[in-house]
Amino acid sequence: MVATAITAVAAPRQVRVFVALCDNKTQGILPVGDKIGNGDDPDNNLYWGCSDGSGSYFKRSKQWKTIKAESDVSPKILRRMTLSHVGGSLELVADAYRGSEIRQCLIDFETASASNLYDLVVYIGHNGLMDFQIPDPEPIAGNDTEVVVLGCLSDRYFTSRLEKTGCKPILMTRQLMYPGSFILHSVIETWLKGGSLEAIREAAGRSYAGNQKISVRAATGVFAHGSKEGP
After folding, report:
1. Dihedral class, residue 148 (left if φ above 0, else alpha if ψ from -120 to 50, else beta)
2. Buried b (16+ CB within 10 A) or exposed e, 34-51
3. Can you tell me the distance from the alpha carbon of 191 to that of 197, in angstroms, rounded to the nearest whole number?
4. Residue 166 burial (CB < 10 Å; 0-12/13-18/19+)?
5. How far is CA 138 from the centre of its chain?
6. Which residues pair with 169 in a beta bridge?
């Protein structure tokens, strides 16, 4: 009898992304153009449909393959995109929430972060915690989900909340900033290769410097990597 070797294939790591569409009417933001600031129109929205938006940037990337694109998933979730990394070791699901539903988007983000179901959970959009409060996340035993929050001053508003659930903030922000999805794209590539927190922060800084046409040093200063490692 010839023994047959069976090689176990590891399941792809899971990334969950929550995007609150930019909305001039309902969010406490500096107004942008009417078209890109319409939170009911994801296809033209600054954080989804525009060139740096999640729904466009990842779709164009050679590192990602779109598996499914869904519209009007619910009254609150206007778009859902499922992608697979070309390396085969990572899957990403991104939801675009109606701009007026930013509060629900943040609640769902924190719930997912606390669930211990994903390897990385990300929020992109206006920092709604500057404008309103949401319930504190429930502590979860054994949770070690890594999290990223790309929104203004997220280190100040999110880090301690997320750490209460056992989450590990790997990239937060210290300043007002533009949360273009090019940042997340660069961060994921470094994270996937096992980069340190500082390497992840540096990747974000290089990406942001190129987009904003500022020095890498200034751009890197926009970001923090939580309190688990270093200042």
Report:
1. beta
2. eebbbbebbebbbbbbbe
3. 8
4. middle
5. 21
6. 147
Q: Which helix (H) or strand (E) holds 204?
A: helix 197-212
CA distance 91 to 47: 20
Helices first, then strands: H and E counts in the chain: 6, 8
Cα separation, 48 vs 96, whole angstroms:
7
Give the pLDDT band of residue 228 (cuts 50, 70, 90).
very low
The SS3 assignment for 45 reads coil
For the chain, what are the domain ranges? 13-180
Q: Are 161 and 140 in contact (CB under 8 A)?
A: no
The residues, ordered by sequence, that sit 6+ positions from 60 with a Cβ below 8 Å of its Cβ are none
Q: Is the pTM of this model over 0.85?
A: yes
Q: Identify whether the C-beta of residue 192 lies closer than 8 Å to the C-beta of residue 85.
A: yes
Residue 1 CA to residue 7 CA, distance in Å, equals 19
Query: Residue 9: what pLDDT?
Result: 62
Helix (H, G, I), strand (E, B) or coil at 212: helix
